[in-house]
Amino acid sequence: xxxxxxxxxTGRKSRLLPLRGEACIYPAHNVLQVMERLYLDHAATTPVxxxxxxxxxxxxxxxxxNPSSMHAGGQHVARELAAARSRIALALxxxxxxxxxxxxxxxxxxxxxxGSLTGRFERAHVVTSAIEHHAVLHAAQxxxxxxxxxxxxxxxxxxxxxxDALRDALDGTPAVVSIMHGNNEIGTIQDLxxxxxVAHERGGLVHSDAVQTVGHIPVDVNVLGVDxxxxxxxKFEGPKGIGALYVRPGVTLAPLIHGGGQEGGRRSxxxxxxxxxxxxxxxxxxxxxxxxxxxxxxALRDALxxxIMRAIPHASLNGPRTRRLPNNVNVRFDRIxxxxxxxxxxxAGIDTSTGSACSSGSLEPSHVTRALGLEPAQAxxxxxxxxxxxxxxxxxxxxxxxxxxxxxxLRGLAGALTV
Length: 419
Description:
Layout: E1 5-10, E2 13-18, H1 31-34, E3 38-39, H2 50-56, H3 72-92, E4 99-102, H4 105-117, E5 125-129, H5 134-145, E6 149-153, H6 163-169, E7 175-178, H7 192-201, E8 205-209, H8 221-224, E9 228-232, E10 243-247, H9 273-288, H10 290-311, E11 315-317, E12 328-333, H11 338-347, E13 350-351, H12 367-371, H13 376-379, E14 382-386, H14 393-418
Parallel strand pairs: 3-13, 5-6, 5-7, 7-8, 8-9
Antiparallel strand pairs: 1-2, 4-10, 9-10, 11-12, 12-14
Helix pairs in contact: 2-9, 3-9, 4-5, 6-7, 10-14, 11-14
């Protein structure tokens, strides 16, 4: 790249500063204007597909009636809402009446845990894992404060939950077990059907946060055997602000939100019809293309992992090599902080993260990488690159060209500071 300059903002004026080195570095607020960005943070959120936006638009304008209204306009929208619910249920191997719409994955997780316990058990046992999303872990903590017993299961070095550990934790007390299907940070895919069978043997109810797997790998609630399952549209190229909770027949669910009795009395509030239609469209597209996308993105993932391991000394993979989400690459680099690597890539026009977007800004190492048994310094050296449907081989090559010099420079700076 030719020599360029950057602006330093000083009040209302700015001045040009020359750059040194091989890469061109820009202030973060100008990056979008001066270079083509490479987005590798699909685990945090995905762009909405054009087909999804097209499907949603009429429901903001000419089809904007309330689906609870009795007039013709309202009833037409109600039929469209029912059709979207059926499409979502079909993609999960469920029935339409088993789908409860929520504002997203976090609400679905909270509804699953609080809803399944409220009014049923004065004292119950909540069993979950050390690498769950904070929507589950913080909900479990709140339930502990209400008097419920909570057990946090450890994971092994690859982030897998042991069936034996789960069996030992369940002692006959009424229990709700919440184990995520695919981890948002390190990509571990649990043997969920086995864990569900263990929990059911001991009389437990099973919930799974499947936010990272729905639309990306096959998810059938009957194959998995779960009683409750959460999903969120913006993880599979749908809109933000809409999710769902699958509820198996026979599971009693007390509402968190009271009001007009929508969603079969399980979640009140006027339905987000554009969001539901967008979610149904995005999920149908994702499932239709799933096999091809899985194979292609998994190959890119493996090429990126292999390239990093070859090019960068003292780099390690976090999470399993095989039982891994197709789009997940989580690596750590000795002797440097992951957030400095993310900033270095950001300045080079590549969007990545250090872990969960919901925990951005935290100075503490990720609870997920710490649960793998890593020391704090090792855990802080991790970054996550999450690929998407539109990621290309050229994108992987760009990362492999940019990342090694970034790590080398940062290690050089770290070494100079310790002298």
